[in-house]
Amino acid sequence: MVPQKLLIVGSGITSAVCCSLISRDPSLSKVFDLVVWEKARGAGGRMSTTRSPKDQDNVADLGAQFITVSPVYAQKHSSIYEELLQSGKLEKLKGHLEGMKNLPEGTKHYVARNGTGSLVKKFLQDAENVAIDYNTHLSKLTIVDGRWRATTLDGREEIFENVLLTMPVPQALQLQGDVQQTLKEAGVHGNLDQVKYSSRYALGMFFSEGVSVPDFPWVAKFIYGHPVWRYASFDNRKRNQDGGPTAVVLHTDVAFGEKNVERSPEDLKEDLLSSARDLLPNLPETQDVKCQKWRYSQVVKSYPDSPGFVVGSTEPMLLLAGDGFTHSHFDGCVDSATKVVEFLKSKFC
Ligand SMILES: Cc1cc2nc3c(=O)[nH]c(=O)nc-3n(C[C@H](O)[C@H](O)[C@H](O)COP(=O)(O)OP(=O)(O)OC[C@H]3O[C@@H](n4cnc5c(N)ncnc54)[C@H](O)[C@@H]3O)c2cc1C
To answer: In this protein, which residues make up the domain named Amine oxidase (predicted)?
Structure first.
């Protein structure tokens, strides 16, 4: 049997878990040649870990912070958690987390010692024989002779039998070519249009190794009633790393993010830095500062009934998956990937 080409768009956690599950499945791995296109220069998406340009050892999670697991998900994804904990990719949070509310009893917080991006990389590494093209931005999908012709922003074209989109839903709805008409004919476009995300900015403050950074009684804290900030952490301490350089990460409140969503991170950076210094006085001089806009941060309204994924077309196959179809966290993305793989098995094996 000649394998079919499956293009997976995006290299966030949903894509990475899909790649891992397909590659580890003896029958599915024979069906598909996997190709990942990612518009950024590295993997991770909203679970990526950023390095200070001035110190490669100083890293910070500007997006996802914790793997917070309810007892239900701990049981449902027990084999994944066992593997991540045994391999040391995931550890129990040791420091004090202040102010996280409304969690089911028995919920546990885990952290990735090397940053949440290392989890995405782990799943991608599990998947042998996946071709990953970074800096490759899909802009158009056109149906040609019963297959998808995928075109990048810079005009490269390639033919695929199957396509799986894992980017935030509004970004899928910006694709050109035959995608929008196909989604309308499948009767899913209206529901996709209803999927909504919050917007936030993240600020990363990197300090040189050896510089004294004040102690606080928490490693991470949720903030309530502040006009700008919602969350602050000492990122290295949060990741159970006490030695080495320190990075402070702050996330803005959603209302602030939405009000300022059309501003550029460069334009906001100095204002945010000054506000961060008011919030956390006595921080030393920074080695470097990064400001990141998350236009599509977390899902506030998911696809009706949270199906995990939707079928945009069967011939040629077009699937849409990711947190927009479940919940905006690690377990939601694992659920989405698992449901995609179950569907592929039922269709192709
Ligand atoms: C500030 C913040 C804090 C969060 N905190 C937590 C937390 O503590 N715990 C938790 O579990 N979750 C948290 N989340 C949510 C979690 O990060 C997301 O649910 C998860 O990362 C979504 O993964 P994904 O693979 O579905 O999508 P994404 O990570 O968004 O991946 C999609 C990928 O597609 C790429 N892409 C988009 N368009 C194109 C295109 N046209 N061509 C090619 N590539 C494209 C993007 O660059 C991206 O890499 C947080 C998110 C944010 C932003």
So the answer is: 105-340
